[in-house]
Amino acid sequence: MIVRRYVVREMPEAVASIRRELGQDAVILSTRNIRVRKWLGLKSERRIEVMAAAKEDFAASAGANFGQALKKAMSEPRDVFTPAAPGPDAWSELTSELAEIKRMLAENRSKPTAPPLTAPEPHERWRAFLLAEGVDSVLADRWARMAVLGAEEAASATGPKEQLIGAVASDLGPLADPAPIRRDSRIVAFVGPTGVGKTTTIAKIAALHVLAGQRRVGLLTTDTFRIAAVEQLRTYADILNVPIAIADEPDDVPAALASLGACDLVLVDTAGRNFLHGSSIEQIKRMLSPIEADEVLLVVSLTTKPADALKMAKMAKPLGVDKFIFTKLDETESVGMIPSLVALCQWPVAYVTTGQNVPDDIDIVSVRDVLQAWKEARHDG
Ligand SMILES: Nc1nc2c(ncn2[C@@H]2O[C@H](COP(=O)(O)OP(=O)(O)OP(=O)(O)O)[C@@H](O)[C@H]2O)c(=O)[nH]1
Ligand SMILES: [Mg+2]
């Protein structure tokens, strides 16, 4: 019979040591709270003293591993002594005590892990989601609040994602509806920063109208700023077999437009410039002024940083922008910029483009359709 004394901070620590050293059949003889002195006797700390017994030394029976087990046991701070052996009654009492401890430990292990105490509030979750999607911070806060309120009122007839989509769409009102080029618009100008896809989008729209065969399309380019820009548009004009005119200066515009007099839809390409510079906006404005476009569409790439896109959109206001075209949806997974810019600028969406293919990769979609992408987003509400 082996009896050992263990001084531990918590009971499970003692049970683990007893199992390891005295084996599965060991029994706990007694437990009591004690205080041990620390810091040269100036302080004391609470500990539990556990007396355990086994019929034989488990470590000794481990044979070849005994040396290792002994080294480990000796390196652990504990006192060991051998009192008189308990009688047969004490054995059965102690065995049932150990069985009870085993049962409690097993019960503890099977308990589900408690949820984190700091789970964010629904409002905070939605706000974080909208911010990650590129929504402006003031709007993210507003739409998150609306979604939470909507959820309370709807008593969860719909899922949380639908409530968010519903909140954004209802806040946008008619701005959430698709707004393609109007049938009564004859001259439509496309403006936007460099490389966002203005010329490609014009080619897509021209091609769709040519294929539909309902309107005679003409192209006018004012982009003589970039080498090969005219050739790029001319190539599309040749493929589609539509007339093209070029205006180098504002004074060239009347003659250029006159050459397209037979067309009932004139799509105007402009030079891509740095929209953060007021001087660039001024140049485009000077060029657009004699054109007197029925609609001005601001082309914004969805790969632009949302804060920059907002700055550019604000800069573009003097150009008389009516609607947005969002390009390169295929190159991003975040669509938050769409409702965000629509709400902040109060311009609806004419088209969304989804790739480089002319004319296939363009769609007339509502903001609501775009928001449906949130349903598939990683955040599961
Ligand atoms: N992935 C992707 N690429 C696009 C999309 N639209 C246009 N592009 C590509 O973007 C690049 C620039 O397109 P352009 O049409 O020349 O852009 P732009 O705004 O006219 O450029 P600048 O006239 O130089 O300002 C080209 O390689 C296009 O094929 C789109 O929806 N998705
Ligand atoms: Mg271009």
Automatic annotation (TrEMBL):
Transport in keyword set: yes
SUPFAM superfamilies in alphabetical order: P-loop containing nucleoside triphosphate hydrolases
Location of the AAA+ ATPase domain: 184-303
InterPro entries: AAA+_ATPase (IPR003593), FlhF (IPR020006), FlhF__GTPase_dom (IPR047040), P-loop_NTPase (IPR027417), SRP54_GTPase_dom (IPR000897)
UniProt keywords, alphabetically: Bacterial flagellum biogenesis, Bacterial flagellum protein export, Cell membrane, Cell projection, Cilium, Flagellum, GTP-binding, Membrane, Nucleotide-binding, Protein transport, Transport
Keyword check for Transferase: no
Domain SRP54-type proteins GTP-binding: 185-375
CDD domains, per database record: FlhF (cd17873)
Topological type in the membrane: Peripheral membrane protein
GO terms assigned for molecular function: GTP binding; GTPase activity; signal recognition particle binding
Record SMART domains: AAA, SRP54
Annotated protein name in UniProt: Flagellar biosynthesis protein FlhF
Location relative to the cell: Cell membrane
Record GO biological process: bacterial-type flagellum organization; protein transport; SRP-dependent cotranslational protein targeting to membrane
Task performed by this protein: Necessary for flagellar biosynthesis. May be involved in translocation of the flagellum.
Domain of life of the source: Bacteria
An example Gene Ontology CC term for this record: plasma membrane
Family designation: Belongs to the GTP-binding SRP family.
Signal peptide residues on this chain, from the entry's feature table: none
